[in-house]
Automatic annotation (TrEMBL):
NCBIfam families registered for this protein in UniProt: ligD_pol
Name assigned to this protein: Non-homologous end-joining DNA ligase
Primary gene name: ligD
PANTHER family (alphabetical): BIFUNCTIONAL NON-HOMOLOGOUS END JOINING PROTEIN LIGD
Keyword set includes Ligase: yes
Keyword annotations of the record: Ligase
Domain DNA ligase D polymerase: 28-281
Domain of life: Bacteria
Gene3D superfamilies: DNA primase, PRIM domain
The protein's Enzyme Commission number: 6.5.1.1
Amino acid sequence: MTPITEVEGRRVALSNLEKVLYPETGFTKGELLHYYATTATVLLPHLRDRAVSLLRYPDGPDGQQFFTKNVPPGTPDWVTTAEVPRSSADSPARMVVVQDLPSLVWAANLVTEFHTHQWLVRSPEEADRLVFDLDPGPPANVVHCCEVALWLRERLAADGIEAYPKTAGSKGLHLLAAVRGSSSERTSEYAKALAVEAERAMPRLVVHRMTRSLRPGKVFVDWSQNAARKTTATPYTLRARRAPLVSAPVTWEEVAECRSPAQLEFRADDIAPRLQDRGDLLAPLLDPGSAAPLP
């Protein structure tokens, strides 16, 4: 019989709590649910008012993985949903919006990564985030991403934009900044221009095009994540990788001092101590007053 738990007055069905999702560490579905529930205080503000794409991996990282963008069948009626515009040729999609702890626990029970757009459902025409996804092509690694991130930090600062780093939770690094007053199209154009600048400044290290043949040994500065239709891994989400790795906020000091990929690899059980010591390093992104206009 499927266990039922009550979360803030909502009845949530939980399933297969003993199922091992990450064989390398023995991390179970119950532990995944515990992680999301205990991290909710910092995770929910980064999810709230944003439509989510759920990357589901119900049999663990080695099993089938698939994105759920539309509201899944069986979604409780108390889970918030919103119509989300797509291309002009398509009708709007209806997607989940994780607004509270019961919705988070329900979604986590599907075994998911959480991915969000760079805009809020109430104003999809305006981007409120700028994102760079720094993706290393082997033998490059996150250490090389850190070098690129530091360059981008200074370049963004020159335009009055403050960037904040987090690990991708896989092999790269993400930079996020709060912005205002621009469309996703304009934000994408700006991000692409900076990616091109970075390639010119560091031609042996950076590539701004996705072409696979160009990427070995370089860091791909993926500016295209700013497109209105695209989503990026949410801060604090678990990732479907070999171990329960987290897309974890990091300090600029950690980025500058990184000499080994292991230094920027954080698992689920690393997050609570970091939060106790540092709080949410990405909290400034949630302050509307911190958003900067694009030049």
